[in-house]
Amino acid sequence: MLSNISTADAGNYTCSASYLAMGESAWGIIEPNTNTRTINLIIYSSVSTPANTVIVEEGNDATLSCLFTGFLPINYKINWSGLIPSNAIIANHENTQYKTQHGSSSTRPAVQSIFIIKSAKVADSGLYTCSMSGTTLRKTILLMVVTQKTSWQVELE
């Protein structure tokens, strides 16, 4: 059993089981036997988003999300970059000056980071990137904030 693995543990492992008894039985002669299997341990991680483009109407909250999965570092730091407005909040719904989410001291198979721009404005439109320190994981999301247009329909009799 492997425990406390790290990226340095990736590679091939060989497992052998031996049966060393000898003699005769009702089924015939029993001879020593060894079975060997090779296991390839792959350490992976990835980042995904529910949408590569998020479109919201001006005045509504814009919610951007990144999901980091796989082998993630302990005490990670998730950064959001882009045109960061002052009314943005991250994950724990508290205003943070640098828009960073810090990890725990234990590993988890997945970590989600949610970035919210309250009452988004057209000027908030642009590219926003989430990234995790200690990895090459990063994902960019396009935010488009649109204005509401009133549509008029005229019926002629």
**Share of helix among residues?**
under 10%
Mean pLDDT: 79
The N- and C-terminal alpha carbons lie at a distance of 81 Å
Strand order of the largest sheet: 5-7-12-9-10
Number of helical stretches of at least 4 residues: 0
The rough form would be described as elongated
The largest β sheet comes out as: 5 strands, antiparallel
Order of helices and strands: EEEEEEEEEEEEEE
Low-confidence stretches: 92-98
Secondary structural class: mainly beta
Number of strands: 14
Could you tell me the radius of gyration in angstroms? 27 Å
How much of the polypeptide forms β-strand, as a percent range? over 45%
Chart the SSEs and their pairings.
Layout: E1 11-19, E2 23-25, E3 28-30, E4 33-41, E5 45-48, E6 53-57, E7 62-70, E8 77-81, E9 88-90, E10 94-95, E11 100-102, E12 110-117, E13 126-132, E14 138-146
Parallel strand pairs: 6-14
Antiparallel strand pairs: 1-4, 2-3, 5-7, 7-12, 8-11, 8-13, 9-10, 9-12, 13-14
What does this structure look like?
The protein has strands at 11-19, 23-25, 28-30, 33-41, 45-48, 53-57, 62-70, 77-81, 88-90, 94-95, 100-102, 110-117, 126-132, 138-146. The chain is mainly beta and 157 residues long. The strands form four sheets. The chain has a five-stranded antiparallel beta sheet with strand order 5-7-12-9-10, with no helix packed on it. Strands 6-14-13-8-11 form a five-stranded mixed beta sheet, with no helix packed on it. Strand 13 (126-132) and strand 14 (138-146) form a beta hairpin.
Summarize the structure.
This protein has 157 residues and is an all-beta fold.
